[in-house]
């Protein structure tokens, strides 16, 4: 059993540094450093890649927030000032991927940079960054699953429990499940697939999409705060589509290289 120590990492007078923002910053810095080294290894211009990453990260943060807000408009429509309160949580990874790919990809296309190769370079960084960033949900007491009595259960304080589960104290730590899954995806990409898929540009990024999505489908089924489209969990729908794209795309890319 474990419990969050609170959302604030450091308090200096009225200034509060929250774990959520701190962990996102660490994830971005570590992921960027990793991608920079990988660009050098692949003999790509690391400075050009850095430009794409900076634009992609900013677009990803905006996209992740707008995606989350769009599916929770019933709340944010009544409290519009809360839209900018990202330190309270509420970033959707699929929105971040869409935003980062759209703007970062547009910039790379405009500058005639090797976008597909860049996607392969940043794929492990994305998995590692997600593994780190998920711990922000732990400190914010969010993104947890159904009640459970398992030894690794998570204690959630009453203000953060859904109304229908006010009498329950312990829940599945789905943020932890996803963090561990993302670490596994990172290891598989770097240790097993990076060299095997090197001849097929774009295949490593598709492998990241497929592997991450496979775990997300299962984990999302445990969560209590899923973004919904009618009776459908949006993350499961998008993850299923991503698995389909990866399952079709990777064999096609490998066949083309042969």
- How many helical stretches? 9
Order of helices and strands: EEEHHHHHHEEHHEEH
Beta-strand portion reads 5-15%
Q: Cα distance, first to last residue? A: 51 Å
For the biggest sheet, the summary is: 3 strands, mixed
How many structural domains?
A: 1
How are the strands of the largest sheet arranged? 1-4-5
Instruction: Give the strand tally.
Output: 7
Share of helix among residues? Answer: 55-70%
Which runs of at least 5 residues are low in confidence (pLDDT < 50)? none
Return the structural class. Answer: mainly alpha
Approximate shape: globular
Keywords for this entry:
mainly alpha, 7 strands, three-stranded mixed beta sheet, two-stranded antiparallel ribbon, 258 residues, globular
Q: What do these coordinates show?
A:
The strands form three sheets. A three-stranded mixed sheet has the order 1-4-5, with no helix packed on it. It has helices at residues 19-41, 46-70, 73-76, 93-110, 115-133, 135-140, 174-193, 203-220, 234-257; strands at residues 2-3, 8-12, 15-18, 154-155, 170-171, 228-229, 232-233. The longest helix has 25 residues, at 46-70. The chain is mainly α and 258 residues long. Helix 1 packs antiparallel against helix 2. The chain has one domain (2-253).
């Amino acid at each position: 059993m474990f419990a969050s120590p609170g959302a604030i990492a450091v308090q200096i007078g009225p200034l509060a540094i929250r774990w959520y923002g701190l962990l996102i910053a660490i994830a971005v810095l570590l992921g960027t450093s990793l991608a920079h080294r990988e660009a050098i290894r692949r003999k790509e211009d690391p400075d050009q890649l850095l430009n794409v990453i900076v634009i992609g990260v900013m677009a990803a943060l905006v996209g992740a927030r707008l995606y989350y807000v769009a599916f929770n408009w019933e709340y944010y429509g009544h409290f519009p000032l809360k839209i900018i309160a990202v330190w309270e949580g509420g970033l959707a990874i699929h929105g971040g991927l869409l935003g980062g790919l759209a703007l970062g990809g547009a910039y790379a296309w405009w500058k005639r940079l090797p976008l597909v190769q860049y996607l392969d370079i940043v794929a492990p960084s994305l998995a590692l960054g997600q593994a780190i960033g998920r711990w922000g949900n732990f400190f914010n007491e969010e993104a947890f699953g159904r009640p459970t009595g398992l030894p690794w259960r998570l204690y959630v304080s009453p203000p953060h429990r859904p109304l229908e589960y006010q009498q329950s104290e312990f829940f599945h730590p789905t943020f932890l499940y996803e963090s561990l899954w993302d670490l596994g995806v990172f290891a598989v990409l770097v240790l097993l697939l990076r060299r095997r898929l090197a001849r097929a540009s774009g295949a490593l990024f598709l492998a990241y999409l497929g592997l991450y999505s496979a775990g997300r489908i299962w984990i999302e089924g445990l969560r209590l705060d899923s973004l919904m489209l009618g009776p459908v969990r949006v993350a499961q729908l998008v993850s299923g589509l991503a698995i389909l794209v990866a399952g079709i795309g990777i064999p096609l890319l490998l066949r083309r290289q042969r």
